[in-house]
Structure formats: C-alpha cells, structure tokens
Amino acid sequence: MLRIEDVSKSYGEKVAIKNISFEVPKGSTFGLLGPNGAGKTSLIRIINQIQPADKGEVFFNNEPITSHLVNQIGYLPEERGLYKKMKVGEQVLYLARLKGMSKADAVVQIKWWFERLGITDWWTKKVETLSKGMQQKVQFIATVLHKPSLIILDEPFSGFDPVNAEIVKNELLRMKEEGATIMLSTHRMESVEELCDHIAMIHNSEKVLDGKIADVKRQFKRNEFEVKYRGEKLESTPEEATEIITENYDEEHQAHVLQMRLPGDEHSNKVLQFVMEQRQVIGFGEILPSVEEIFVDIAKDNVNLTSVSK
Amino acid sequence: MDKIKLIIAREYMTKIKSRTFILLTILGPLLYIGLILGSAFLARQAENDETTLIVVDQTGEFINDFKDSERFSVQLQDMELAEVERLYQEEGWEETTVFIPKDLFETKKGVKLYYTQNPGLSVTEKIKATINGTLRDTEMKKAGIDKEVAESIRRTKVEMESKEMGEDGGKSSNAAAASVLAFGAAFLLYLFIFLYGSMVLRGVQEEKTSRISEVIISSVKPFQLMMGKIIGNALLGFTQFAIWMLLIIVGSVAVGMIFPDALNGVQEGMMANNPQLQASAAAGVDMDAVGLIMQAGMDFNVFETIFFFFIYFIGGYLLYSSLFAAVAAAVDGQQDLQQFMLPIALPLIFSMVLLTAVMQNPNSPLAITFSMFPFTSPIVMMARIPFGIPWYEKLISVVILIITFMGSVNLSGKIYRVGLLSYGAKPSWKQMFKWLRYKG
C-alpha cells in the first residue's frame, strides 16, 4: 500500500527524520510510534506531500506518490481545526471538494455520514456553536468522506473524548473491513496494542523497529513466565529460574503470582512441574512484552549507544 | 487549477455573505453621503450664524461701504482705538470690530480687526475687499483716473490654454483637476491595498489559529492556498469598489437633485481652504473630482488613470498582501503580528506622507525616485499619472513592480508554507530568512 524508502528530512541544522524505510501492508492497521518530537509528524507530512523529503521516496501502490494520489489519502492532522464562521455542511462539502469529489457525490456522502453519526440537523449550524467533541466528529467525517484507501491519523486519540474515540475506533474498524488501510501515529503506545497489527517505531529521527506486532513481540520476548497458584506461598522458587521478577498475591483470584525469567534453552514445563507438585496451579503462561516495554528497552539501548559513541 | 478555483470561491462567497461585508458595503457610501450632507449643513449653519460687525471708521469714508449681508450685520460707531481695546479688555465685549484709522489714506496702514471668536476666512476676506475697493477708488480719483475707464482696463484678461507637449502633439491639461484626480486615485489605492491586504492577513491568521491550515494543505499546495486567498480577496475588492462607485454616483445625483446647493456649499468650503488642506480633505475630494472631471472632459487623462489604477492596484496589492500573508502565517498571536506588520506597512504609509510633495511637483527627483521604488510606486505613481508623465517612466515603474511582486509572492510562499505549520514560539526575522532556504 505504502512504501517509504530511505526518507530523510531536516529543517536547517535540525534533523527531523533520517533514512527511514518501512512498508505499510494493504489492509493493515499500522501504528507509527515514538515519543513526542521523534519525527512522526514530519514523516506523515512528507507522505501527504505537505512538505518534500530532502532524500528518499514514498510509493503509494508502487507508484511514486503525487499530489493526485494524495487525494486517495484521508489525513487527520494533529493540529486540526475548522473554519469557525462556516456552516458545518458547507465546510465538509468544501473540504471534500478540495479532495477532488464532485459536489453531488460529496453531498450524498455527507448526508450518509451525518445520518450515521446522528447529526443530521447540524448542516446549517455554524462551527463556532459546536462543542469541541462535536467538532471532532465533523473533522473525522471530513477526513474519511471521500472514501480514502489510506487513512492517516496523527495522534488521533489526543483531544478526542472517550465517547468520540470509541465511535472513531468502531468506524475505523468497519472501514478496515471494507478494505481501507489505516495508519495512525501516537506517542501513547498502550493505545496501539488493541488496534494495530503492524508498527514502526521512530526514536531520535531514526526508525528503530518495524514489523507485525506479533513478530515484534516474539522477537523481543525474554522467556518470561507467570504461574498462579493457590495455597500457602512457596518456600522456595524453581531453581531453573534465573531471575524472579515479582511475587505477588492476587486478591481477585485469591492466588499467588510468581513471575520469573528462564534461560533461553530451558523448557517451561520444568517450572510448572515444580509448582504443580506442591500447590494447585490455576494459571500458567508466557509473559510477552508490551509495545511500550519494547520501546523503552530500545530507547535505553539507543541512548547508551549514542552516549558510548560520544 | 480546479482547487484554486474552489479556494477563491470559498474566500469570495463566505465574505460576500458575511454581515460585516454587507454592512460595510452599504453603510460606506451612506456614511460618505452623510458626511457630505453633514459638512454642507455645518458650512451653512456657520454662515447663518450672523456676526455683528462694528465699524469704527475714523476717516468717515467707508460709512456707505459696509452693508448688512448674509455674513454680518453692520453697526457704525465712533470712538478711539484705546476705547475699543478697553471695551474688550474691561467690559468683556464679544463683538467683532473693524477699526479704520484716520490716516489710512496716507499710510495705508493701521486697519485692525478685533474679535473674541474668529469670524472665519470669508468674513475677514470680505472686510479686506471692501476697504481695498474704497481705497483704490479714492487713489484713482486722486490720480485723475476715471473709474469707468479703470474698470474696463482692469477687466482686460488674456485667455491662456495650457498645453503639455509630448510626442502625441500635446494635450490640454488642467492642473486643478489633475491634483484632485491624483489625490483621489492615490488615496483610494492606499485604502484598497490596506483594506484588502489586511483581509488576506486576517484570513491567513484565522486559518492558522483555528488550526485548519494543515487540513487544507493536505489537499492543496500551500502556494495555491495563498494565491487563492489573495485572488479571492482581490475579487471581493473589485466587487466592493464597483458597488461603492455605483452607490456613490447614484447617491450623489440623488443628493444633488434634492439639495441642489449642498454640493456647492462643500465645494466653496473646500476652495476657501488652502490647497494642501483641499487635497487632504478626503471626504470632499471625490465629489470635486466628479465635477472637475466632467468639466475637463475627454481631453483629460481619466482613462489612463483608471487603467493604471487597476495595474497599480493589482501590483501593489499582490506585493503587500503576499507579504502580509507570509507574516500572518509565520506569527501565532495578535500582538506579535502587530510587531511584524509595522515595518511592512511603513513604506505604504510613507508614500501617503509624500503625496503632497509629489503633487506639488510631480517631476521632482523625489517624486520620480519613489514612483520607481516598488514599495511606494503604486501610490506615488498614481499621484503623478494624472499630470501626464513620459511613457517610459510608467513602463519602468510597472516592470520594477512586476518583478518585485513576483519575487515577493515567491518568497512569501516559502515563508507561508513553513510558517503555517509551525506553532509556538514567535519566529525572528532571521529564522524567517532561514525558512526561505528550506527545500520546497
């Protein structure tokens, strides 16, 4: 769907992004992750042809991207707003037409969306009379009205209230099922887990990681396991465990929770066996790192690396 | 190209339907006509406010010359100069008194006018003329010149037609009408550049503060957005100009028919003042222009002036509005904006300051220089054109202006593009120059 090849951009002395390459597969929900100031927005602006890259290229469906192809993208920037004095209907119509829709098409679509989100009586309202949450709905409609095959949302959930965030999430999932590809950037890594199936991480202007979330997690798993058991707390821990991460009591399950790390070649059954022989096990499983943990790990390494090279 | 049309259309349609535009468009000419009627009314009011003129004539020769008139009623009294001054100083006199000393015919000196409230130029001129008339008659009689003969000699007058020579064989010129036209055109141009330039400014600022700019420029190029805005507002300007002209012409004709004297009153009042004031009294100027242009007829540079008005409006407006757009895009808050606006608007204001000097001597080195300098040329050249100037000067000035506005539109586009997306800290001039070098 979208391929980014060796893209760099700097503003004067300041490097925004450096040699970034990755691919957004068709039909995926792609999370572009990184802390504030990592270069996510710069990259998104390059994809949308808002600013040119200094180096590298962006391909959309295997074609170098042009302003014509950008019409197939629906982009909701982080800094988003509406003309305050314009009427809601006119405004969405104007934005749709700028995306190349005909007037008749746009009107049909706007009516459909307004009905869908229960805002049919908003057409003649002025934007300034709407609440922030209401304006967000309008912005979202304007982003997806022209049925883009790629929807790019920059920090979509900052500023959205929970109700609207839920609506937006559901609509995104529906559009994904209908074949749209979704790319969203965020610095809040936890919000990505439930929505995205692919990610790319940017740190200090460089891509540090990308791929399928499942693959990434597998790659970064540390052979950590968790066992839950009832009864008295164990007097000793399994000798196979190289590190005990935590030992807690889970009130809800009325069980002890033991988290530990095993050496790479050790079979987890041995640990389970050790506990089972002494107590009633009610749960056992592998601990996969959260995206955030992976990021923190990488960022730490990265920081170390840069400080070492200095 | 279709997208730029959409932007122009939005810019034009939302503004033309806005309450402010409608109010301004309708109220503008109404205010203008009200101003004319008001000043005419006030002028007459002042005249009707009769002054009592006390004539202290020690010669006894002027007794029959001062007559009651619209301006004053005459009262003859006989007293000494010291007495007159005492009355004012000690008795609190408020009358206007003219004192004619006994030895006036010998010395031609010593006439004094006392007042507590300035009776105005027309009254003092009339008093002077009255005394002068009698004085001259007496002198002539003394010299043995017959009054009738003198009068007929005095009436001898040569007719002089002023012709400005050029390659086209010369054309009649009318300096007064030219001044009025020059001032009117230059002032109107100033007003329009400022009015519509600041509309562009506010539009850009609105897009920036409402955070919609990035949404828009993900669909269109920043340059298209900027140009769409500039063109849309220019069209709005043309529309407003056309409506105003129409309303003013219709209104003036209507006023002229209902109050036939009103306009004369204004014109008279204007003429009584000195030429500089006459030039700067903006309210009255157009009315004079209409009258004088009609008198001057076709042999006058009206069409040329109108033609260049449009050329210089487009050039000057493009130059200034693109700079305004760049600054508005670069700066976030209202206060910072003012600070950046001033240096840009300064040459525009400066050219208005130059105007009087330019009109007094349209071919002075000062006038020529600033009619070439692109930031002042629209207004300064507009003030020169009605006087007739060589074609190559106009050509050079227009070419310089075109080159400059192409440059400024280009540079502004770059600053605009970067500025629109940067929020937060106010950029410095230095930073804005850096933006120019960003790849685009």
Can you walk through the features of this model?
The complex is a heterodimer of chains A (310) and B (440). Chain A has 310 residues and is α/β, with parallel strands linked by helices. Chain A has 2 domains: 2-217, Rossmann fold (3-Layer(aba) Sandwich); 222-287, Alpha-Beta Plaits (2-Layer Sandwich), CATH 3.30.70. Chain A is 35% helix and 30% strand. In chain A, the strands form 3 sheets. A 6-stranded mixed sheet of chain A has the order 6-7-8-3-9-10, with helices on both faces. In chain A, strands 2-1-4-5 form a 4-stranded antiparallel sheet, with helices on one face. A 4-stranded antiparallel sheet of chain A has the order 12-13-11-14, covered by helices on one side. In chain A, helix 3 (88-98) crosses helix 4 and helix 3 packs parallel to helix 5 (132-144). The longest helix of chain A is centred in the C-terminal third of the chain and has 19 residues, at 291-309. Mean pLDDT of chain A is 86; it is low at 303-310. Chain B is mainly α. In chain B, 70% of the residues lie in helices and 6% in strands. Chain B has helices spanning 2-16, 19-48, 81-90, 104-107, 121-143, 147-154, 175-209, 213-217, 222-258, 262-272, 275-280, 282-296, 302-330, 334-360, 365-372, 377-384, 391-419, 429-437; strands at residues 51-57, 72-77, 96-100, 112-114, 163-164, 171-172. In chain B, the strands form 2 sheets. In chain B, strands 2-1-3-4 form a 4-stranded mixed sheet, sandwiched between helices. In chain B, a hairpin with a 6-residue loop joins strand 5 and strand 6 (171-172). In chain B, helix 2 packs across helix 10 (262-272) and helix 13 packs antiparallel against helix 14. The longest helix of chain B is centred in the middle third of the chain and has 37 residues, at 222-258. The A-B interface holds A 11-12, 45, 48-52, 54, 67, 70-71, 73, 75-77, 79-86, 94-95, 97-99, 139, 142 and B 3, 6-7, 10, 14, 18, 206-207, 210-212, 214-222, 417, 421, 423, 434, 437-440.
